[in-house]
């Protein structure tokens, strides 16, 4: 932050005595008595004689200050003492306004004429004098001159403050400053600097016999006679050309005033319906005339072994591949049942070995690691910034409002309109807030037995000279003191000045060391820097800070990159702060607060509270699985026919696969994330349960063939169903592993863990679970009780019957949805859903509302709410110039700086131009520029840059010592910018200089961390130039800010080949960078997943290309419909929802692949009957019913992110998957399903010859 002093200090005015005398006479000469009202200042001596030649010792001073009088015998109305006083008084204006030579020349003209002009009596009138002193004077100034002087200075910037210089020199905000009130302020005795009143009278025509001073002025666009160039664009709007105009926003894409996507999809949908209905009617008429089976070419007799086979090469290859899979899985299933101990023991050893990696498990909770890849641009920028300038400060912040309705009005004693004040600026409220602030300053935490206080951690920019902590609070205008807050000047009848007047002054000149009221209290904070009102106040309109409805108190704490002890102390103090604030009660104050650790703490708390919800959710699913696997025929055989132990074993297998996946990746040092822990068990349970139900229910419905043993039966069943399980599991595994190519850490980590867990789950199911199924079948056949296996029932045999739900699907549901008139309705409804989803897919919001990541009872939610409602300034943004630019050369300086002689497309100039259209660029202010302030600081006219001539060490401007000499000579070359060795010689002095009354440009406070010097100060490395974003409230605001800042940085880099600029804004760029490409990432991830599913399905379905197309098409429809649900349910697209979409892609395979494979191997006579048979292998019992119980519990979670991204999205995934898999897909297959594979039919006939299935085939 910049540090400056008040205008009043900048200018000490020297009055002239006046008697009305003829022209060419003085009204004063020399300095006399001490000023009564301003101690330390002197009156000028009354003198009405002719001008007196200046003593020779003052020639250099005259040349420096008033070169216009440096001619002849230099007869003037001032002596050397007055010139010295003039120089001292103009130090701060020099430091701030000399950036624009024309501005400073005009200002010097004003004061040179006032102090030394030999024609004083023409435009000055001493209205009050005593025996020797001038006590009051009137100064007649040309209106033209004063306007020209103001116009030349109005745009000059104060780089370290991100504000205009006149805000620091006019006693009010620059926008309220004009030619008249600026000069009146400089001459006002109330500013505490002017020794007696100077009354300016503005006129361009003679008044009362006086001719106003109307000397020649220079516009800011003009160069001076001494060779100084015109002011830069940044300091002179007229030098800029036309103001940049933001490009117009692209108009919304509409057709006839309606959203174009909506119109297009309506037209497409209607066109589809017309074509589809026409095709259905045409096909129906054709079938009425010609009844023909699709098996016509195959079966020419009732003997299934008598076939006309014209199977294509591809069909034959597919049948052979299918047969190989069947034989492999059959043999493996038989082996698992015959040798359960070997399989179970081997599996247990492998699971334990894999899970052993959990001892090395690391859970990533650092938000930066969760959301930003180490190779991403924003992450690399942050790492570069941290390594060169240190990590960002830790922020502890309070936003304070009051429930009281006590608005009041302040009436200034010295005139002016009434000023309304809000409740939070009531003095009693301010006292209470100050008590709270002082209590926080006094908090003591304990870390490893040591006491930790705020002073141990806080940012103290002027340390070791000033160890006060930086506290950005309106109370710092009152030096954090109750006594200063109560300070007032008045009598028994009136209050002339109090906290109201001081506040109003300080919000317009926060860097002032002395306000212009009678209080003369400083505004500068106790830490040595200004507190800008837009950082300490909230809820005001425009710049009417008196209307503020919120106070903002910010404690910046030092952050530590690799120092765990200091970081631990900071965390301990923040924990103490949070505990204190949670227990703080005050009926007059409503306090929202946050510390740097708050979000991470709340995420941890949320995770712990969600464990209960997750456990209940899984428990419900486990209970359902254990009960639903059993096929109970009678109450007497409940414990025999139940499959509780088998269900528990299946669940343990699911958990083992998750543990193995986590363990294997933990061996490789890949950390887990909360998303992995919360989502993967859910995913693997979905996939695993489905496979368990398929195996068990197929076994329950199967009749053992004559002379077939149990191990052969289970082997045969596994041969039938395992290829389908392998198809779905392998498709999901490949899809997930390809999803790991994502740059988003959360998505990549999830995809890796999920892919491996699904595949391990499949391996355990076809080994462990098959062995356990064999053991359970033997138990059941032996009439032994489930769980209590040693107890055996004496009588009864298992009867093979079909369950109610299975009969319902087979006898009622399947025939109904495949009726002639129902199928077109289903297609129309689902295509309508698809059309709607496509129409809104581009309207799904991108981003993540940070409020959703917090528990719904979190204190941080109040803070986020107030942050959005009250704050007026966005996050800081740093434009970083990498190491390599030669700042010692004019070329290197000109591509960065913003003052006279700098390039029009320099870094500072381009950021300044961007700030002019802040609504578009989101850049709020001109950047603080250490280089421009350094140039002002090092000027020989300034008292800032001095050194001891005997030691060469730096001599601060406040030091009075004859051995201190100016850094640079008062020569034409000395007045130029420092170059070469001079540049580096004085730069370290600038960066160590604290601002003070005599030099407001010291760079220690504002720029100590902004310049990374090479070892031994041999050169300048990386540097940054800081400004602020406009207020950012929602995710789209942050994303847009990042996008615009990137564009600006790119423009700066392209504008100059000498530098490479990158930028960094606080830490939010790291989080929001993902959203710049998330639409592309989502499309790529889902497309790659779909493509992999298509390839795997093609191969594993026996090279049936059309079947793979249908599977991929149905999954694509589910995914597109998910976007429709996201739009309807206000679910934004971000890393969490992308993980869910990738998971949806995997789970959708379960809903589709089993049915398509069952359809492809069915040997029924037409597509409708094949679709009916395929529905017998449905996912309703497994994945659908299992998930419903678990998902409904998630709605009870306190976590908003769970409610939105898990409950809503999981529910949508299951509903859309179930409806597409169980309703739409069978209907689609009945219309355009693949034709029968002739080779598979022939193989089936041979395989089932002489069995029960031969009768079914012939039928």
Defining key terms:
alpha+beta; 4-stranded antiparallel beta sheet; 1259 residues; 51% helix
Give the helix/strand class.
Answer: alpha+beta
Low confidence ranges: 1-22, 292-308, 1255-1259
Shape: elongated
Overall number of strands: 29
How many helical elements? 45
Mean pLDDT: 84
Oligomer: single chain
Share of helix among residues? Answer: 40-55%
Q: How much of the sequence is in beta strands?
A: 5-15%
Q: Output the radius of gyration.
A: 42 Å
The rounded distance between the terminal residues' Cα atoms is 90 Å
Membrane topology: Multi-pass membrane protein
Pfam family, one: Sterol-sensing
Protein name: Niemann-Pick disease, type C1
Domain SSD: 610-775
Summarize the helices and strands and which ones pair or pack.
Blueprint (H helix, E strand, L loop, with lengths): L6 H4 L17 E7 L7 E5 L5 E2 L5 H7 L9 E2 L3 H10 L1 H7 L3 H16 L3 H4 E6 L4 E8 L1 H11 L3 E2 L4 E2 L1 H4 L9 H8 L11 E5 L51 E2 L2 E2 H30 L23 H26 L1 H16 L7 E2 L2 H5 L5 H13 L4 E8 L6 E3 L8 E3 L5 H15 L2 E4 L2 E4 H4 L24 H5 L2 E2 L4 E3 L1 H10 L24 H4 E2 L11 E8 L6 H19 L7 E5 L3 H31 L9 H4 L2 H24 L4 E2 H28 L8 H30 L5 H37 L22 H14 L4 H19 L18 H12 L5 E6 L8 H5 L12 H10 L1 H4 L8 H9 L7 E3 L15 E3 L13 H13 L11 H4 L3 E3 L6 E9 L6 H21 L5 E4 L3 H5 L5 H23 L4 H24 L6 H27 L5 H8 L5 H15 L5 H33 L5 H11 L3 H7 L1
Helix pairs in contact: 5-7, 7-9, 10-28, 11-25, 11-26, 11-44, 12-23, 12-26, 21-23, 21-24, 21-42, 23-24, 23-26, 24-25, 24-26, 24-40, 24-42, 25-26, 25-38, 25-40, 26-40, 28-39, 28-43, 38-39, 38-40, 39-40, 39-43, 40-41, 40-43, 41-43, 42-43
């Amino acid at each position: 932050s910049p540090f400056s002093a008040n205008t009043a200090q900048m200018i000490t005015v020297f009055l002239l005595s006046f008697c009305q005398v003829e022209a060419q006479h003085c009204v004063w000469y020399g300095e006399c008595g001490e000023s009564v009202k301003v101690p330390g200042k002197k009156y000028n001596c009354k003198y009405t004689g002719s001008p007196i030649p200046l003593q020779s010792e003052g020639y250099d001073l005259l040349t420096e200050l008033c070169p216009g009088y440096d001619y002849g015998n230099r007869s003037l109305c001032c002596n050397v003492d007055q010139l010295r006083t003039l120089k001292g008084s103009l130090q701060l204006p020099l430091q701030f306004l000399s950036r624009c030579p024309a501005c400073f020349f005009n200002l010097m003209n004003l004061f040179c004429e006032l102090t030394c002009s030999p024609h004083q009596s023409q435009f000055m009138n001493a209205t009050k004098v005593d025996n020797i002193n001038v006590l009051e004077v009137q100064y007649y100034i040309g209106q033209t001159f004063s306007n020209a002087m103001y116009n030349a200075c109005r745009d000059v910037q104060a780089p370290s403050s991100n504000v205009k210089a006149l805000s620091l020199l006019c006693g009010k905000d620059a926008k309220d400053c004009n030619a008249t009130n600026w000069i009146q302020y400089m001459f006002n005795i109330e500013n505490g600097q002017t020794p007696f009143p100077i009354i300016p009278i503005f006129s361009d025509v003679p008044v009362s016999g006086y001719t106003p001073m109307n000397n020649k002025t220079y516009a800011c666009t003009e160069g001076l006679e001494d060779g100084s160039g015109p002011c830069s664009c940044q300091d002179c709007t007229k030098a800029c050309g036309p103001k940049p105009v933001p490009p117009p926003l692209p108009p919304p894409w509409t057709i006839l005033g309606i959203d174009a996507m909506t119109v297009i999809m309506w037209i497409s949908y209607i066109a589809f319906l017309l074509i589809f209905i026409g095709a259905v009617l045409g096909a129906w008429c054709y079938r009425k005339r010609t009844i023909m089976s699709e098996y016509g070419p195959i079966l020419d007799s009732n003997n299934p072994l008598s076939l006309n086979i014209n199977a294509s090469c591809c069909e034959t290859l597919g049948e052979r591949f299918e047969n190989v899979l069947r034989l492999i899985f059959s043999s493996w299933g038989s082996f698992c049942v015959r040798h359960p101990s070997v399989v179970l023991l081997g599996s247990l050893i492998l699971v334990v070995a894999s899970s052993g990696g959990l001892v090395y498990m690391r859970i990533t909770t650092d938000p930066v690691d969760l959301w930003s890849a180490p190779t991403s641009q924003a992450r690399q920028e942050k790492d570069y910034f941290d390594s060169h300038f240190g990590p960002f400060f830790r922020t502890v912040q309070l936003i304070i409002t009051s429930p009281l309705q006590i608005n009041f009005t302040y009436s200034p004693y010295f005139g002016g309109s009434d000023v309304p004040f809000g409740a939070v600026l009531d003095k009693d409220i301010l006292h209470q807030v100050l008590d709270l602030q002082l209590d926080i300053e006094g908090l003591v935490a304990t870390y490893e037995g040591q006491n930790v206080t705020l002073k141990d951690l806080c940012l103290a920019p002027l340390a070791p000279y000033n160890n006060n902590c930086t506290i950005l609070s309106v109370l710092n205008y009152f030096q954090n003191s109750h006594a200063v807050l109560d300070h007032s000047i008045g009598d028994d009848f009136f209050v002339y000045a109090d906290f109201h007047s001081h506040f109003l002054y300080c919000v317009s000149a926060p860097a002032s060391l002395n306000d212009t009221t009678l209080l003369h209290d400083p505004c500068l904070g106790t830490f040595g820097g200004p507190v800008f009102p837009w950082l300490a106040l909230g809820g005001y309109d425009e710049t009417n800070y008196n209307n503020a409805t919120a106070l903002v108190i910010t404690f910046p704490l030092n952050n530590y990159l690799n120092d765990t002890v200091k970081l631990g102390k900071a965390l301990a103090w923040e924990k103490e702060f949070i505990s204190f604030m949670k227990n703080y009660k005050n009926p007059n104050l409503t306090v929202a607060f946050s510390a740097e650790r708050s979000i991470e703490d709340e995420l941890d708390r949320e995770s712990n509270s969600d464990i209960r919800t997750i456990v209940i959710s899984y428990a419900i699913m486990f209970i359902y699985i254990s009960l639903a696997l059993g096929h109970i025929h009678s109450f007497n055989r409940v414990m025999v026919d139940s499959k509780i132990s088998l269900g528990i074993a299946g669940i343990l297998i699911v958990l083992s696969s998750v543990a193995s996946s986590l363990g294997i990746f933990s061996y490789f040092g890949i950390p887990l994330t909360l998303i992995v822990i919360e989502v993967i068990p859910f995913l693997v349970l979905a996939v695993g349960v489905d496979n368990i139900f398929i195996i068990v229910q197929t076994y329950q419905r199967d009749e053992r063939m004559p002379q077939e043993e149990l191990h052969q039966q289970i082997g045969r069943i596994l041969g039938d169903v395992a290829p389908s399980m392998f198809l779905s599991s392998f498709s999901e595994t490949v899809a997930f592993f390809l999803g790991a190519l994502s740059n988003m850490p959360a998505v990549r980590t999830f995809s890796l863990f999920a892919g491996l867990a699904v595949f391990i789950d499949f391996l355990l199911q076809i080994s462990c679970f098959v062995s356990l199924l064999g053991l359970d079948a033997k138990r059941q056949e032996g009439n032994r009780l489930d769980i209590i296996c040693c107890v055996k029932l004496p009588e009864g045999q298992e009867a093979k019957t079909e369950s109610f739900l299975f009969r319902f699907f087979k006898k009622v549901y399947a025939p109904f949805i495949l009726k002639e008139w129902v199928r077109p309705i289903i297609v129309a409804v689902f295509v309508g859903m698809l059309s709607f989803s496509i129409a809104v897919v581009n309207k799904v919001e991108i981003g993540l509302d940070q409020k959703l990541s917090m528990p719904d009872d979190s204190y941080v939610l109040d803070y986020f709410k107030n942050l959005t409602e009250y704050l007026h300034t966005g996050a800081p943004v740093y434009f970083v110039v990498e190491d390599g630019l030669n700042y010692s050369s004019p070329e290197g300086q000109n591509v960065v700086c913003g003052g006279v002689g700098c390039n029009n497309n320099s870094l500072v100039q381009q950021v300044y131009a961007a700030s002019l259209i802040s609504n578009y660029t989101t850049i709020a202010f001109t950047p603080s520029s250490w280089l421009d302030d350094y140039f002002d600081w090092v000027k020989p006219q300034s008292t800032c840059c001095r050194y001891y001539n005997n030691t060469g060490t730096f001599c601060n401007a406040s030091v009075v010592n004859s051995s201190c000499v100016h850094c640079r000579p008062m020569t034409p070359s000395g007045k130029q910018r420092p170059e070469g060795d001079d540049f580096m010689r004085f730069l370290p002095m600038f960066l160590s200089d604290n601002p003070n009354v005599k030099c407001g440009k010291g760079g220690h406070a504002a720029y100590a961390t902004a310049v990374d010097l090479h070892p031994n100060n041999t050169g300048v490395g990386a540097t940054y130039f800081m400004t602020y974003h406009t207020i950012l409230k929602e995710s789209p605001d942050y994303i847009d800010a990042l996008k615009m800042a990137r564009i600006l940085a790119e423009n700066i880099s392209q504008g100059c080949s000498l530098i490479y600029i990158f930028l960094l804004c606080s830490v939010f760029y790291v989080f929001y960078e993902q959203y710049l490409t998330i639409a592309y990432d989502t499309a790529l991830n889902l497309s790659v997943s779909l493509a992999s599913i298509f390839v795997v399905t093609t191969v594993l379905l026996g090279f049936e290309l059309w079947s793979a197309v249908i599977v991929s098409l149905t999954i694509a429809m589910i995914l597109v419909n998910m976007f429709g649900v996201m739009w309807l349910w206000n679910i934004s697209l971000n890393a969490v929802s992308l993980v869910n979409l990738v998971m949806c892609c995997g789970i959708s395979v379960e809903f589709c692949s089993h049915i398509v494979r069952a359809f492809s191997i069915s040997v029924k006579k037409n597509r409708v009957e094949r679709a009916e048979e395929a529905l017998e292998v449905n996912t309703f019992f497994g994945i659908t019913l299992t998930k419903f119980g678990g998902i409904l519990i998630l709605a009870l979670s306190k976590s908003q992110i769970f409610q939105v991204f898990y409950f809503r999205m999981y529910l949508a995934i299951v509903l859309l998957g179930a409806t597409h898999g169980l309703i739409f897909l069978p209907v689609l297959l009945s219309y355009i399903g693949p034709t029968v594979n002739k080779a598979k039919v022939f193989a089936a006939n041979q395989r089932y010859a002489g069995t029960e299935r031969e009768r079914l085939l012939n039928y």
